[in-house]
Amino acid sequence: TDYFLTKLDVLTGIERIPVCVAYDVDGVRHDEMPMTQTEFHHARPVFEHFDGWEENITGCRTLEDLPANARAYVEALEAMSGTRMSAIGVGPDREDTIVVRDLIG
């Protein structure tokens, strides 16, 4: 299983968070970035928007500590990517991290 890390705190205060979920090439939806040069230049991103949050998440240390909208965003990223998050950055310092799954072991 793949794991990834995100810096969630930089999204705090954004009312609606856009996430590119596909590409439209001349009316045809592609779930992955088109590989040909022509299609690439005609590709337009298709966005899904998620409700943002205003709460300060710096002190959060578990997923349950996150505001509901932040948690929903994390869960949506996991579902879209087919991977699980191991750690989530919630502030500028190293200890400002929610460790979801141990990266070592």
- Overall pLDDT metric: 90
What is the CATH domain class?
Alpha Beta
| SSE series | EEEHEHEE
Shape estimate: elongated
Low-confidence stretches: none
Strand order across the biggest sheet? 1-5-6
Helix and strand composition category: alpha+beta
What's the domain count?
1
Task: State the major sheet.
Answer: 3 strands, mixed
Total beta strands: 6
Beta-strand level of the residues, as a percent range?
25-35%
Distance between the termini: 13 Å
Under CATH, the homologous superfamily reads: Adenylosuccinate Synthetase, subunit A, domain 3
Helix content: 10-25%
Radius of gyration over C-alpha positions, nearest whole angstrom? 16 Å
Second CATH tier, the architecture: Alpha-Beta Complex
Counted by DSSP, the helix tally is 2
What does it look like?
The chain is of the alpha+beta class and 105 residues long. The chain has a single domain (3-99), classed as Adenylosuccinate Synthetase, Chain A, domain 3, CATH 3.90.170.10. Helices cover 19% and strands 34% of the residues. A 3-stranded mixed β-sheet has the order 1-5-6, covered by helices on one side. It has a 3-stranded antiparallel β-sheet with strand order 3-2-4. β5 and β6 form a beta hairpin.
